[in-house]
Amino acid sequence: MSMLLAMALAMAGPTKADLKQLGPVKDTPTVQLDPNGAYILLRSPAPVPINLFRIATPDEVEDYKVRRAEALAKAHKRWTSSHADWVKNKDTYRAQGMNVDEPVEPTEANLAFPALDEENLIGFGPLFRFAKEKGGNSTYLQRVWPGRYVVYGSILVNASNGVATGFCVCMGTIAFDVKAGEIVDAGAVKASVNDPLIYPRLLDKAEPGDVEGLRSGAITMMRWSPKDGSMAIDPRLSSYKVTPAQFRPAGPVPNYFGVQVDRMTAIPGILGYDRDKLVDLSATPALNAAH
Amino acid sequence: MYRIDRLAAVLAAVAVCAQPALAAPPPPPPPPPSSLPVPDPGKVELPNLSAPTTAEDAADFDKYFYFHRAGTSFEQALTDIRECDALARGLASPFGWQSAPYPYTNTLAGVGGELIANALISAIFGSAELRKARRTNIRRCMNYKGYDRYGLNKDVWQQFNFEEGFSEMKEDKRQQLLAKQAKAASLVAPAGKVLGR
């Protein structure tokens, strides 16, 4: 597949067959990557889950609108039936002392339907590391669909019961582009599900230089460091093109999973804050990431 | 046979009770804060926020407080509080379904134990954790918006605030209380000392 063809297909979004090709690259002695694939490289001092979502393409947005409209039509049909039933029986309910609420009519505004960002969410870690140093970084390398990725948070969803725990950086985050035929080096992330607001004793265990920032909230539950000279690239990737991620501010984004809400710690030269307003310290405008 | 039927009926009842907490469908999205009407602040009533507090009250300032930011209009405070409320509602229970341990998994005794244990875990711990998670999200959000926090006596706090566990506050009542909080955050001179975030 030529690079141009790969880029054109990326505009349409992945098919189910494409999705099967995506996922973490295993830690094996030699590594064979697809030269037309898109990959994200990320390091973390601890094995933690990190979530990003890909901003949908216009074609995906159109497809989503159709699916959502169909779901609304179905929900409205069910509501018509249940509401008629409620009207018919409401006097009986009242006479029997039963408090049965009138079914709420589903509308475009109140329909419970997963957002497109949720469908395009991907997760790194905590398992399936590409490399791990004893007492040091865990490295994740993941094949993804080309596009623009927004860092969403650190969330674990229990597959058996669907319960989500963790936090989102809903109030301020970063985004970066991943192109076909590239490994994008996203640098390193430090995520913790605790902060002193929840667990004040954290301050006792914090590194001295972090105490004031943790206390004031300047240091949040997610700290991101763009690629720098101190971050080595695994020798198994020496024959591949590795490009440092170009970050820009993004957000805010909704709390889709009902988890703790936080924001990314400010990043010099990329992301700052004026109260809750994002300040773009990069050369490009901030992205409105929410759909 | 009768005993088994009766046990099954009891377990089914417990399962129904536990259902909303354990496997609730995704809630509909809250109305966008910008689409809601802004009430006349002159008609929004507040209790006396400058009533003195005791050392016992101070021990609970993590729970009972209000926000204030100098130089902020009522409309702006209401927008801010509604945004933070939107980020703090419909939270996921940290307690999902806990399976009975092997070798009781999928046995009648195991399933019965699961139902009862999950209902209890959910009722006792889940709601408290949800209330705490809501408080934390609101505190983080309002702190990022530049609001300071001031402690209150619980009785005063309850007159214009609410907690949310498994049961959701009705929308009209929620908006009334958020308007009171916005008035406290903008138009009332703060009393007491500034607490941490």
Summarize the structure.
The complex is a heterodimer of chains A (291) and B (197). Chain A is an alpha+beta fold and 291 residues long.
What does the model show?
The complex is a heterodimer of chains A (291) and B (197). Chain A is built from six helices and 16 strands. Chain A has helices at 3-12, 16-21, 58-95, 116-119, 202-205, 211-216; strands at 23-24, 38-44, 50-54, 121-124, 131-132, 138-144, 147-157, 164-168, 173-178, 182-191, 222-225, 242-244, 248-250, 260-261, 271-274, 277-280. In chain A, strands 1, 2, 5, 6, 10, 11 and 12 form a seven-stranded mixed β-sheet that branches. In chain A, strands 3, 4, 7, 8, 9, 13 and 14 form a seven-stranded mixed β-sheet that branches. Chain A has a two-stranded antiparallel sheet with strand order 15-16. Chain A is α+β, with helices and mostly antiparallel strands. The mean pLDDT of chain A is 90. Chain B has a domain at 48-94 and 128-195. Chain B is built from six helices and three strands; from the N terminus they run H-H-E-H-H-E-H-H-E. Chain B has helices at 2-22, 55-58, 74-87, 108-144, 154-158, 171-186, and strands at residues 65-68, 148-151, 194-195. Chain B has a three-stranded antiparallel β-sheet. In chain B, helix 3 packs antiparallel against helix 4 and helix 3 packs across helix 6. Chain B starts with a helix and ends with a strand. The interface between A and B is medium-sized, with 33 and 32 residues.
